[in-house]
Amino acid sequence: MDVLFICTGNTCRSPMAEALARSLVDGIGFFSRGLAAWDGQPASGVAVDVLMEAFGVDLSAHRARIVDNIDVERAGLILTMTRGHRARMNELYPSAADKIFTLGEIAGEDISDVGDPFGGGDAEYRDCAEMLRRLILAIDFTRYI
After folding, report:
1. pLDDT score, position 46
2. From the candidates 2, 49, 113, 116, which is the catalytic residue?
3. Is 128 one of the annotated active-site residues of the chain?
4. Per-residue DSSP letters for the chain?
5. CATH T-level topology, domain 2-143
6. Which of 2, 3, 85, 95 has its CA 20 to 30 A from that of 14?
7. Residue 7 annotated to the active site
8. Domain ranges of the chain
9. Which of 7, 33, 88, 126 is catalytic?
10. Among the options 12, 13, 33, 88, which is catalytic?
11. Block mean pLDDT (10 aa), the chain, length 145
């Protein structure tokens, strides 16, 4: 089973989390989706640039996808960027509630939401990426998968 990262549009936070997790964690599959994604939209250009410059991680091939039942079934763990995303996922997929958490919850940090850098500049995206990296490194994914 894989880990699914969820945000709103699947162009900033969740694809950055997916790409960072793939670069940091071996032996586990990661993918990302959005609750209101426009299928096929590329990742934010700033997100692509920041991940490559700061972490050497290539996000350029990412294309947004909206979450569906197949994704939820595939995932052994679903990590949302905000409490609002978690609440919406629980409404849409109540049978999966036992595997839906915020990223901050699973990381054991007192962070309820990962802020959306959409519309911001390099600094906002870099701060978001650094937070995502720190949270991902704090998780023992083998406990959940």
Report:
1. 98
2. 116
3. no
4. -EEEEEESSSSSHHHHHHHHHHHH-SS--EEEEESS--TTPBPPHHHHHHHHHHH----TT-B--B--HHHHHHEEEEEESSHHHHHHHHHH-GGGGGGEEEHHHHHTSS-------TT--HHHHHHHHHHHHHHHHT--GGGT-
5. Rossmann fold (3.40.50)
6. 95
7. yes
8. 2-143
9. 7
10. 13
11. 96 98 97 98 98 98 98 98 98 98 93 93 97 97 87
